[in-house]
Write a structure and sequence with these properties.
mainly alpha, MetI-like fold, 2 domains
Length: about 250
């Protein structure tokens, strides 16, 4: 625990120095607040404006969690199917890689045309963002299972089902959590992008309203909220990982 705090000290110092330089530059060059507000002004807006953006935060959190759960569930299901059916993996996996070359921001307007302005296109955006990291990570975890252990279980008479659930699935957990941590951070970004599709509330809506009224301080508050939510979800996944993958931590120790 002490080592973790020590690792966080240096980045914290660098961040404080950058904020101090930003504050001094804003005052020295008299930069207009609408162009680039000073950090103290942004912090003040964040602390005093909870009534303005509190309901937006709760809406984004609900949307993020729902989309994250859908995306990761589908991702794990697809990864399991591709692993158990090698011929299907050979046919589909290249298409999964190719699909990542399509920017979500470009796909989002098409989802609105196809599914309207309701909740469905927003959940699809978040699910697509979360789907790929968890699918690839799970497939990698299944593939990296120790061949000697697989051979031993096969000699012991284990069925393919037993080998998957008793060996390959537990072995993939560290890889799966790596994908979950990536998906957790991307899910908040996906939620904000999806809220640009015509939502009535959310951090994305708050950011759009702030930028259209030249309230740059509120835009920075929205950016800070996205960063904090991403770190919060990431930390939550790390905490769950420590309780689920105990054997891996004991092995490292």
């Amino acid at each position: 625990m002490l080592g973790s705090w020590q690792k966080a000290v240096k980045p914290g110092i660098v961040l404080i120095v950058l904020l101090l330089l930003w504050e001094l530059a804003s005052r020295a060059f008299a930069i207009p607040a609408w162009l680039l507000p000073a950090p103290l002004q942004i912090i003040e807006t964040g602390l005093t404006g909870w009534a303005d953006y509190g309901h937006h935060v709760s809406s984004t959190v609900q949307l993020t969690i729902t989309g994250f759960l859908i995306g990761t569930t589908i991702g794990l299901g697809v990864a399991t199917g591709l692993h158990l059916i090698p011929s299907l993996r050979e046919a589909v996996y290249p298409l999964l890689i190719l699909s990542q070359n399509i920017p979500i921001i470009v796909l989002a307007p098409l989802l609105v045309i196809w599914f309207g302005f309701g909740m469905l296109p927003k959940l699809i955006v978040i699910a697509l963002v979360c789907f790929f990291p968890i699918t690839v990570s799970a497939l990698e975890g299944f593939r990296e299972t120790d061949r000697d252990l697989k051979h031993y279980m096969a000699m012991a008479g284990a069925t393919k089902r037993q080998m998957f659930f008793k060996l390959e699935w537990p072995n993939a957990w560290p890889y799966i959590f790596s994908g979950l941590k990536i998906s957790a951070t991307y899910s908040v970004m996906g939620a904000v992008i999806s809220e640009w599709l015509g939502a009535q509330k959310g951090i994305g809506v708050y950011m759009t309203l702030a930028s259209s009224s030249f309230r740059t301080d509120r835009v920075f508050v929205a950016i800070a909220l996205v960063m904090m939510l991403s770190l919060l979800f990431f930390g939550l996944i790390v905490l769950i990982e420590k309780h689920v993958v105990k054997w891996k931590r004991e092995e490292r120790d």
